[in-house]
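#lab-general

N.A. 3:47 PM
ok so I finally got the sequence cleaned up, no stray characters, all 855 residues accounted for. can someone with queue access submit it? mine expired

B.Y. 3:52 PM
send it over

N.A. 3:53 PM
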Amino acid sequence: MELPSGTITLLFTDIEGSTVLAERAGDAWPDLLAEHNRILREAFAAHEGVELGTEGDAFFVGFTAAGSAAAAAADAQRALAAHAWPEGEVVRVRMGLHTGEPTPTDDGYVGLDMHRAARVAAAAHGAQVLLSQATRDLVPEGLDGLTFRDLGNHRLKDLSGPQRLHQLCIEGLAADFPPPRTIEGRVTNLPAQPTPLVGRKAELETVRGLLLEDGTRMVTLTGPGGTGKTRLALQAAADLVDEFPDGVYGVLLAAISDPELVPLELARVLGVVESSSVSLIEALQAELRGRRALILFDNFEHVGAAAELLAGLLAACGRLKMLVTSRESLRIAAERQYPVLPLAESEAVMLFVERARALRPDFMLTDDTAPVVTEICERLDGLPLAIELAAAWTKVLPPAALLQRLENRLELPAARGRDVPARQSTLREAIAWSYDLLGDEERRLHARLSAFMGGFGFEAAERVAGADGELDLLEGIASLVDRSLLREAEGVGAEARFAMLETIREFAREQLAQHGEEAELLRRHALEFARFAEEADAGLRGDDQLLWFERLETEHDNLRAALDSSLAAGDDETALRLGGALGWFWYAHGHALEGSTRLTELLAATKGAPEELRAGPLYALGVLLDQRGEPEQAAELVQRSLAVFREQGDRERVGTALNSLGSIRRVLGDFEAARSLLEESLAIRRELGDEARMASSLSNLGIVAFEQGDLDDAEARFVEALELDRAHGNEWGAGAALDNLSAVAIERGDYERARELNHEALALAERVGDQELIAFGLEKAAVLAAAGGQDGRAARLAGAADAVREAAGIDRSAFDGEWLDHHLSAMTDEEFEAGRVAGRALEPDDALREAIDDE
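B.Y. 4:20 PM
back already:
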């Protein structure tokens, strides 16, 4: 069969619920399937469709014109709907169309367009026809009376970026369907991938089947680096989002080497907030208990000692399942291993062709090149990473030249080290071969960029890898991206960002060490991220507060690496700069446990450093310990840092330490000392003209006044703080001031004003993500509901606030507890407790909506 070439529209179909339908039909199933096949073939043939293949009840058909494909799909759906099926059955077929330029071969077409068409079809419901944007653009308006409905952008389950989908509307047939069966609407954080998975169909079916078996709790994909374990696992997880209604989560561990950070990373992914009342492990178990969820742990070989955490979670959470990738097994009872082998020859060749066509759209397999490409894939043992590296060079070298270089560079198996697995050795040689093809400057740049962990932006690369001005970074990075040695990564805003696969980064780091540049590059890297941390610390108090939080999260792996490398190198000064600058980020963005742990280790390792260098981390640790419910130790550390700041004459940091110490003293009940410390802090900040920080001192003074019953003084302080916070873009501070003002309005009996302030405060608290602000806002809303006679709603909101506090480990102070009880005391205990229990069960978003909805 000669296949048409050029632009082709591909039509994929399959019967919705065919397994159940076959069981129901019993002996009648073969005849029913034959009738289905006849109807489809007649419709496709009438519009000159070329049948490319069938699999079970699925059809793959090609059309030279998009309009013909759409008309054929419409005719097929009309005929299926009109047919009188036996036993009153209904056969509902989903269809998907996509247009592209797949590569014709002896066995049909290959290419990314085939994958995209299949995924478009998989997103459809029975009796629905979906079209990609590429197909919709080519279908003439008014064709056979067909109309189209724009369904917007959706992420298909091939994990690609958003794709625009359209529905073909056929007169007389149903046009209203649920949203497409894509990743949207599912609870998942699986990352987008630059290309669909090539091959691995059998492996995908096996892994999916294992995970769906009742007795399977964990599946571990094992194999050496470069076999494609990560991509296979991501695709299997994406295919199962419909089967795990409580979430499919990816915990990516390539940048983590400390097993103790695994529960912290899992907590970050799940949104579990650290608590002072329960351990983080207990909080994770509580979050996952009873949920039918799937968690993918990728690159677990870096943190093998954390296997006990996974075993404990599985034991405590009976409906939880896990998918793990690792170069070795985890050796726990629940584990079922699945070795990921190299690609089969046909799939390896397909991968090579598709990656080559991404760089050279005119690349084709011919009678001359097909055997050469096959030999290249055999030489590379079918390892996906090695094949991608080789295919990247087709932009500048023909296949024959590639094969010749492989023959000259790869060692014979007998020459390999006895303790090096063959495939791992082959991958190393493939990377080395690709590395050796680079020019001298590209090699140096590639090695230098290995200093980064978790990716990097261009400006950081200039300061670290290009600090000596010897390398052309713009040209060099572009070249490394072309050769698949770097990949474009997701940055913050419009920032261009790049990353290396971990296996490649490890190889590049070895080259850096061999060139004698490792120590110098790690020093530059640590200095760069110490500078960045200090800039970000200042930025968190300005107009771009939320942007800086996002940037810090993006660079967290680099910040961790910089802290580790500076400590390892004995560079106490840089390590202490980093620790001091990261304190507020760790405090405000849910990293209190990690931050306090790292700062404790940092201070223990730098006991011999001058106290003026240690004062910043001492202060940061004190603030974090206060957040974790240890105010006595916190006060001691902040007092020590304050003494150093005074001795240095650093008025700005004296004002900051005084403010924190005053707040801690208030928590400890020493109001006189608190007011004195806070007044001194405010005076210093006024003297310095530091309006951004004055707001915090004013707010804390207002809280002291409020708790002592001076509403006029409290309100004046809060109003001034709010004005300053708004002027300087501090949304966190503004939310706190608004919440405090709502409490003052409540005390004055001005409930309408209190309600307006409470709504504003809750909106900012939700935007910033501060759990304590959210709890305060829910409590004010509960008081306002009680004042309006809505006792049931008041109890629910109070219960929701309890749940937020418990999840975040935030205790309600004695004063706050008495204030809330006073305003809710009119309700009977029985009535109040019933509503409070219901409120505890509310989802956080539902609680916020109820708080804002006053009807």
